[in-house]
Amino acid sequence: MAQTGNELKPVLVFDSGIGGLTVLREARVLMPERGFIYVADDAGFPYGGWEEAPLRQRILDLFADLLATYEPEAVIVACNTAFTLAGTDLRQAFPDMRFIGTVPAIKPAAERTRSGLVSVLATPGTVKRAYTRDLIQSFAARCHVRLVGSENLARMAEAYIRGEPVSDEAVLAEIAPCFVEKDGAHTDIVVLACTHYPFLANVFRRLAPWPVDWLDPAEAIARQARRLVPLIEGAEHPEGFDFAVFTSGNPDFSTRRLMQGFGLDIATPLLKVASDR
Ligand code: DGL
Questions:
Q1: Structure confidence by residue, pLDDT tens digits, 195-226
Q2: Is the pTM of this model over 0.90?
Q3: Which of 22, 58, 160, 196 is the best mutation target for the ligand 1 pocket, counting ligand atoms within 8 Å of the beta carbon and taking the most?
Q4: Residues near 150 by beta carbon (within 8 Å), at least 6 away in sequence
Q5: Ligand 1 surroundings by CB, under 6 angstroms
């Protein structure tokens, strides 16, 4: 059935925390007629250190609930750690839903690098995934790809964006392994393979031992979402559909303020998935 402006379904953007906002801001530019529901599984944050089996199950259970509750038009999984693990399972479990995924931008990095030295900065989960190894084999076999799994950067990005102090030394310790020098060549591209990291991009640029391209896939993900979400002639942005849901049910004051800055009200989660992990 054709949708009219009044009944346009929203787009759901999902992440473990507030990193998916880096994708949401691009998606909104390209889909101004759509309402957005931002879901942060903050009760499970950070995803980077989880074992694969329980995290996969958590994500599938959560989505069964989310899709039944909010009936979105499409879902942007704005989390590399979640999508590289459970993207295929989600598509299999919910074949009627359009999922737009986030995976490390290894292919564009391999196409653009001049030195052949590329680094992928991600969570420990994402660097371990078979999905990530397959991307390297398929698209970057001729490059030297250094995988850097950071234990702490997602938390640091959350702190930074909430206005808390983050020390230069601590950030530098996390990004330093990305900078490789080999036979006179230097790393020239660092893939930001965690949606939290673009919030720290200016800090990374300032601290980098030499200039590199910091590849943020947010815009490409938004473009892919635009291709899959029908553009309805004359449709206007609906009222009351821009809100954020935190699975903890209890985001702190600075997170609420951040959401407000993004024009998102905080809604009570109508979800059954428990806030325990
Ligand atoms: N933002 C997430 C990603 O893109 C992960 C952060 C985390 O929960 O560790 O991978």
A1: 999 999 999 999 999 999 999 999 999 999 99
A2: yes
A3: 196
A4: 48, 121, 122, 123, 124, 174, 175, 194
A5: 15-17, 19, 45-48, 79-81, 123, 126, 154, 194-196
